[in-house]
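Input record (Table S2, row 108):
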Amino acid sequence: MNNNNHDIFITDTGETYSASPEDTLLKGMERLGRKGIPVGCRGGGCGVCKVRILSGQVRKGRMSRDKLSEEEEAAGCVLACRVWAESDVTLAVIGQMGKAVRRKNVAS
Ligand code: FES
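Output record (FE2/S2 (inorganic) cluster complex):
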């Protein structure tokens, strides 16, 4: 933890987690310990970690165009394993990861 950390707010669950500048958004989400978060390639190639950035600044790494179309990217979608927060971020989980993240709400 350091002062450069950013708060990442997940609209689907109302949770906030802290991400250091070195951690991808996916890494921080994994740390929440949500059971069933599908961890795929972690390299921008499988598409399971797709999220939509609703607000905030992010830095993007290489992402497979097969898994993230130009239309999706234009709409704010990114692959969380290849994105780093540069400010506080609000995101929504979509696709396969959404089910795992929301599962907690069903159980509680
Ligand atoms: S884990 Fe495969 S694209 Fe993110």
